[in-house]
Prior knowledge:
Layout: E1 10-16, H1 20-31, E2 36-39, E3 55-56, H2 68-84, E4 89-97, H3 105-118, E5 128-131, E6 144-153, H4 155-168, E7 172-174, E8 177-185, E9 188-195, E10 200-210, H5 216-220, E11 232-243, E12 251-255, E13 261-267, E14 271-275, E15 279-280, H6 292-305, E16 317-326, E17 340-345, E18 352-358, H7 364-375, H8 400-410, H9 416-425, H10 431-434, H11 453-462, H12 468-475, H13 484-497, H14 502-511
Parallel strand pairs: 1-2, 1-10, 2-7, 4-12, 10-18
Antiparallel strand pairs: 3-6, 4-6, 5-6, 8-9, 9-10, 11-14, 11-15, 11-16, 12-13, 13-14, 17-18
Amino acid sequence: MSHNNESEKTVDVLVVGGGVNGVGVALDAAGRGLSVALCEKGDLGGATSSSSSKLIHGGLRYLEHYEFRLVKEALAEREVLLKKAPHIMWPLRFRLPHQKHLRPAWMIRIGLFMYDSLAKRNMLPRSRKLSTTSESPLVSNITTCFEYSDGWVDDARLVVLNALAAQDQGAEIYTRTECVKAEKQDNLWNVELKTVQGKTFTVKAKSIVNAAGPWAVSFLDRLVNVNNPNAMRMVKGSHFIVPKLYDTEEAYILQNKDGRIVFVIPYEGDFSLVGTTDEDYKGNPSEAAISEEETDYLIDVVNTYFKTKITQDDIVHSYSGVRPLLEEKNASAQELTRDYKVELKGETGKPVLLNIFGGKITTYRKLAEHAVDKLVTCFPKAKKAWTKEVPLPGGAFTDQASLVKKLTSEFPWLDKSIAERYARQYGLLCYKFLTGLTSLEEMGEDFGAGLYRAEVDYLIDWEWACTLEDVIWRRTKHGLRLDKSQQTALAQYITSNINGTSDVVNAEVASA
């Protein structure tokens, strides 16, 4: 990427922040005919967007806080997304073990009835009540479960696919590029961007979209002469991953004595994902990590419900994300709204600022559509909203099983388990690195657990992967499977293939 003429570049929209909201806005705006650039100071989805519970859900528990608009929008959106991205999203059945002393059965039934009724369900079955058997992974004193449907999403890949789609629509995506300053000059924003190697360049923009997530408020301090009345509250949510607690496909939603809920979700075949917590957070969002208290809290909830008991030694990985939530007076961390606010400042022909506060993964597409609807009031030539029906890159197929069949017949030398992983990570995008290959040898070195060089090269060349962490935690989940020496070898390979960013990679391996 040369930045020679960048100093002359003028765009309609500069999006700051490469999380799910930022890439969603970039895609929507670019598809309406606006010229778009997006800058992200780290990796795409590198903060909050890759640290979620990986659910596309209406938010059953938000009904208790009377958030009907949010739940209804999220439930409708669930179906839209499952259609748009069958590779990285799929339906999931949830079981809610009933504990009489926590929430009475009538309350849960009413909640689930409303959940079913608020949804326009095409793909997902209704909720029901079931009795547990001795086969159940739950402790024997739990005899009843309520079952309902929601969806699963690979959150980090969702971000990358939206960025790829935005790029296909003409957007320029600058990763590892920070917006250091922006000021109004004549009728444009004059924005200074700085790459991770320390090079700076300027972009002129008619509008700036502040999609900086947990940094949305602090980012406003870099805009010259902009004041901000909005208060955000940082809430940390932590998860950990353990070897799988049971062999079946469903997820569990566990109620705790404090009224909170914890999810246990089948993860990457051999594991269970457990989370999340809600703790107020101060400090740099990129340094958030699970605390001893959170770890004990989650272990305790799991051990209360499951026959299989876990200890700290079982944890193979943990991660924490910071949710930037809209401040409400006297609300506890778990009561804060998951709704979002989109705020436009400025008018046509003047430098415009659009701020995005809050939001959740499930409603990212709707949030982006609302945001761009507001933005285009300043761009009279822009086209109409368009993202609802269009599949995300690699998603133009009907179901994973038939794609796996197609892959194994076209590439018979490919192990079925690898074909299955390609189907659920890349969908049709895996043809970008499989087409033309006739044997496993041609895939190149196996860095471990079936992560071949051809795939790694694709991630570097096409999906903005620059570091070990980008590859093994965000583009894939091979961090769960590669040992230290395999990770070191892979990191060295990535470094040797990325010119100029080696200092970043080395720093990261040293800290790994």
